[in-house]
TrEMBL record:
<feature type="domain" description="TadE-like">
    <location>
        <begin position="11"/>
        <end position="53"/>
    </location>
</feature>
<protein>
    <submittedName>
        <fullName>TadE-like protein</fullName>
    </submittedName>
</protein>
<dbReference type="Pfam" id="PF07811">
    <property type="entry name" value="TadE"/>
</dbReference>
<dbReference type="InterPro" id="IPR012495">
    <property type="entry name" value="TadE-like_dom"/>
</dbReference>
Length: 120
């Protein structure tokens, strides 16, 4: 009788793997996409701070944009959008440097859950 029970459980591991593998791959894909988005967020934050430092000492808009692009070497320079508010400023004035960057999602199922491209 025990031999029948043992034989009938032969495919149990394969069925469990077939049920859990899609969930594990979805979690792994989510971790990868989150890491890519978070990396872009950190680089953009640092680049906008560098741009603000340059802007407060009296650099022009083009100089600020060049500094932001130079501070974000791992990102596509053509996709970086730099916005200064107010547009006319002087040395020591308060201003806001806003940098946006679209992150294209690679995992298809994750792109169904999040907007593609995800803008940081």
């Amino acid at each position: 009788m025990w031999k029948k029970i043992i034989r009938s459980q032969k495919g149990q591991a394969m069925v469990e793997l077939a049920l859990l593998l899609p969930v594990l791959l979805l979690i792994l894909g989510g971790i990868i996409e989150f890491g890519r988005i978070f990396h872009a967020y950190l680089v953009i934050t640092g680049a906008s701070r560098e741009g603000a430092r340059v802007a407060v000492v009296g650099e022009t808009y083009d100089g600020v944009r060049e500094k932001v692009i130079a501070s974000a070497p791992s990102l596509d320079a053509d996709s970086l959008d730099v916005l200064l508010e107010p547009e006319s400023y002087g040395r020591g004035d308060m201003l806001t440097v806003t940098v946006t960057y679209p992150v294209d999602l690679v995992i298809p199922l994750i792109s169904a859950l999040l907007p593609d491209p995800f803008t940081t």
